[in-house]
Fold:
Amino acid sequence: METQTAPPLSLYVHLPWCISKCPYCDFNSHALKGSLPEQAYLAALTRDLERSVGELGRRPLQSIFFGGGTPSLFSASGLASFLDKVAGLLSLEPDIEISLEANPGTIERGAFADYRAAGINRVSLGAQSFDDEKLQALGRIHRAAETIGSVRELEKAGLENFNLDLMYGLPGQSPAQAMDDLAQAISLAPAHISHYQLTLEPNTLFAAKPPELPGHDRCWEMQRQCQETLAEAGYEHYEVSAFAQAGRRCRHNLNYWTFGDYLGLGAGAHGKLSVGDDVKRDWRLRHPADYMAAADPIEGTRILTAEEKLFEFMLNALRLEQGFSTDLLCERTGLDRAFCAPSLGEAVAKGLLLVSGSHCRPSEIGLNFRDNLVAIFLPDGRESSGRARTGNGESYGFL
Structure:
């Protein structure tokens, strides 16, 4: 094993409530019934943070991400108070990225100025589509006009670093309609666009009552045309579903994809920390009521085996279009090159991975069959499930 250098550190904070549960959503979100227990939940987050800081060392936080759920249901003053506590317990990078997921249907006019004053400097807006009929089919509570209005409020608040979430392969959607959605998104000049296909996930309403979705060939045509358009508009395709203007890649998500460390706070949140040459994963109690009531909300902890460290590094790093270096692989996992070589060699032999010196990246075939590529590194007896989520690090699997 090689000596492991402590990687960068991020903080993920899960705020699990939504106005209503979208029929395609398989994440730990809960429809709000009654009033939002903001103070009780923020107090639980603070206790969790105070309990956890001892094992973080002196590394400064390079990013904070409020994910959900719909974090914009929480007040700017509440988040400001929590961020003050974070700053009092941990050091922060001077240029720290602090992101907030927001639903256009839950933002009051002018609220983004308050979030910016609280310390938020990046917003991820869940647009999903600019077709009201498609938004209704997705169970979204907002309409296209509200997304456009939210972007105008972001601009007025000086929050030019924002992401638009956009989906394709929607019920009854044609390639032309997908391109119309993308054209509307680009016209709003977001710094970042997350563009991904709607999939039917287990334990969702759509899985139980599936809508009629476009076929594989039609979705592939949407993906191809949209990626070409994004490139022409100056958006770099740097990760499976992430496109950014120059200098606007999401630092928080890049820390996941390069196997960085992160503390996960909140109901159901997962964390990953390097402890010497070990990599420790932990996860919190999933239900918000249990999380708020618990003296210790950590539901489980495990140390990854060498095989699991290799698999999880590859699962994340192979999402990056540019690939990764074997130096980073060994540095972030503590594994030596001899241990990694057989699996890397198999991927190269199958034409799925290209290696030049110490740099590895998926081949064109590997990009198109990424799940087959990642499966080479799957530990014996382990099956992949779920999907990796941009933003929160709480679930892992293939897109």
Observations:
- Confidence is low (pLDDT under 50) at residues 384-399.
- The chain is about 35% helix and 25% strand.
- The two ends are 31 Å apart (CA to CA).
